[in-house]
Amino acid sequence: MASQAWALSRPEDLLLRDWDDCGAVYDAASGDTHLVNALAIELLVLLRQKPCSEAELVGCLIDDMPDDTATAAAEQIAMQLEWLQRLGLVHLITTPP
């Protein structure tokens, strides 16, 4: 059965700048610059390496998240991914089984 994974929309067009608690993303295709939080930068860095499912992203980031429950971490990651999708920086893809 096919599953879904998150991927960067245009990895070659995104420039990331990371500070401790926030970062900036410049989208060369649109000319837009976005100020983002540390979690968003971490997600974009992971997705630059390869497309990942939400569960994979939670597994990679859960130890660094301030909330101590997997459910709370998963909710925060899901909200960030939806926001990054609205900005046009990430999108869902279908991966083969």
Topology, pairings included?
Blueprint: E1 3-8, E2 14-18, E3 22-27, E4 32-37, H1 38-49, H2 54-61, H3 70-86, E5 90-95
Antiparallel strand pairs: 1-5, 2-3, 3-4
Helix pairs in contact: 2-3
How would you describe this structure to a colleague?
It is a single chain. This protein has 97 residues and is an alpha+beta fold. The chain has one domain: Outer Surface Protein A, domain 3, CATH 3.90.930. The protein contains three helices and five strands. It has a three-stranded antiparallel beta sheet. The longest helix is centred in the last third of the chain and has 17 residues. 21% of the residues are buried.
Q: Can you give keywords for this protein?
A:
single chain, 97 residues, alpha+beta, Outer Surface Protein A, domain 3, three-stranded antiparallel β-sheet, two-stranded antiparallel ribbon, 38% helix, globular
Measured as a percent range, the helix fraction is 25-40%
CATH-derived architecture: Alpha-Beta Complex
Tell me the overall shape: globular
The CA-CA distance between the termini, in Å, is 5 Å
In angstroms, what is the radius of gyration? Answer: 13 Å
SSE series: EEEEHHHE
Mean pLDDT: 91
CATH topology term: Outer Surface Protein A, domain 3
Strand order of the largest sheet: 2-3-4
Q: Major beta sheet, specifics?
A: 3 strands, antiparallel
**Number of strand segments:** 5
Q: Helix segment count?
A: 3
Low-pLDDT ranges? none
Short description:
By secondary structure, the protein is an alpha+beta fold. Helix content is 38%, strand content 30%.
